[in-house]
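Example 3.2
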Amino acid sequence: LRELRAGHHVGVAVDGPRGPFGHVHPGALQLARRSERPIVPLTVHGRGCIHLGTWDRTLVPLPWGRLEVRAGEPLTVPPDADADELARLTAILTRALVGAGGAA
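Structure, written as tokens:
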């Protein structure tokens, strides 16, 4: 939160350190709500990569491999968002990440 308020960008794995894959935990939305900064969903697609069989679908690019990072539409979380609004925004973020077919 301090870094965002200082004008920096941060990256957050929305499904947390243990998953499950694609399950958006509330931390990212709460961070966006409190900082009044948008969430820009990023997905990663790869060719020439080793796909690990881990819960988070880790990609390890080989020397000739290519990774493509795609940015989705920014998602703004109003500072006064209630539980219903947060649930709606969580569903939108989930679709943006998992529906894009990449690693979130």
